[in-house]
Specification:
The structure holds 2 protein chains of 2 kinds. By secondary structure, chain A is mainly alpha-helical. Chain A folds into 3 domains: 1-78, Arc Repressor Mutant, subunit A, CATH 1.10.10; 83-118; 124-198, no CATH class. In chain A, 51% of the residues lie in helices and 11% in strands. Chain A has a two-stranded antiparallel sheet. In chain A, helix 2 (22-34) crosses helix 3 and helix 5 crosses helix 6. Chain A is elongated and about 145 Å long. By secondary structure, chain B is α+β, with helices and mostly antiparallel strands. Chain B has one domain (23-139). Helices cover 20% and strands 51% of the residues of chain B. Chain B is built from 2 helices and 9 strands; from the N terminus they run H-E-E-H-E-E-E-E-E-E-E. Chain B has helices spanning 3-22, 46-54, and strands at residues 24-35, 40-41, 61-73, 78-81, 87-96, 99-106, 109-115, 121-127, 131-139. In chain B, strand 5 and strand 6 (99-106) form a beta hairpin. Chain B is globular and about 65 Å long. The N and C termini of chain B lie far apart (41 Å). Classes of the chains: A mainly alpha, B alpha+beta. Chain A binds chain B through residues 131, 133-144, 146-147, 149, 151, 154, 156-165, 175-188, 195, and chain B through 34-37, 47, 51-52, 54-60, 98-99, 101, 103, 107-124, 126-128, 130-132.
Amino acid sequence: MPVPHCTSVQELSAHLDGELSPQARVALEAHLASCPACTARLLGLRAVGVALRRRYEAEAEARDMSGFTASVLARLKPYRPSLSERLSVAWEEWRTHRPGTLFGGMGLTAAAVLAVLLLPQPPKPEAVADAGGQNPSVEAISTDEQSHIAPVVLKTEGGDAIIWLVDHPDRPSLSLGSDASTPDVAPPTPARPKGGEL
Amino acid sequence: MTVRVRSLLLAACLTALPAVAENHVALLAEVVQATNDATGVDPGLERMREQFAKSGITYKSYRRLSHEQLQLAAGKPAEVRLPNAKTATLTLLSVKGSQSQVSVSLPPLQTTYTLGREGSVYLQAGPHANGVLILVLTPSAG
């Protein structure tokens, strides 16, 4: 038959954890001073507590906790508000703190869009290419070897082609006519043209 | 010859007709005399004078001596007789869409051009009466 104790395990455990009120602590310590059984139980509980704490501390030290922080942080998902939420917040911030900048910027943007829409558009590349293909081009050109003259191909600004004959530099000079037939300003004499150079 | 074969031949001929019809091109051939012995530019030649001047060729006078509308057909050369006794021979080589390839023989010059719908080709055609002849070839609607 178990011997009844003066104090309960809960009361002794609370005393070990410092959870008793000052009055209850004074009364318990007065009792322990005169009760060897309760003192023995209190020492027993303290020994069990110390043993448990050392055991769990040893287990904790045996575990590799070096990556614990990193693994926890890696599992955290940063909160990213939705686009509408971000726009709403940005709108409120600009409207509250920078209304001049906000509405001025909107006005400039609207003016720029209008300017782009109303300004005359440059010709499309296809149209330019088509117009270029409609002008004449020289595919091949030659003169007789005995003619003493060589052709010069000139392209005008309007896309026309001028084929002019000049004295061949390697041959005896050949007059193309009298003085009146010679232009006032001699045409440029580029290198002998090749077919399709225009 | 069976009816089936004749039908096939007729269909082939009808298919080839448009290609034959496309193998021609209309050109305006003008003969212009440029000289420094006179002054004056004939109507319609102001642009020519301007283009020549910008290219470094300057004459005081541009006179149109003749103009002729040519219908060039593939394989059928056309001739343009010049006042200086020279003859230009034009031959249509091919037609691709709006572009045609034309060869011009104007001794001692031999040239081949690709002509579109716009622009002109000016060929110096030799001296003539204190000036120089210029053969102007311009695509026309025909």
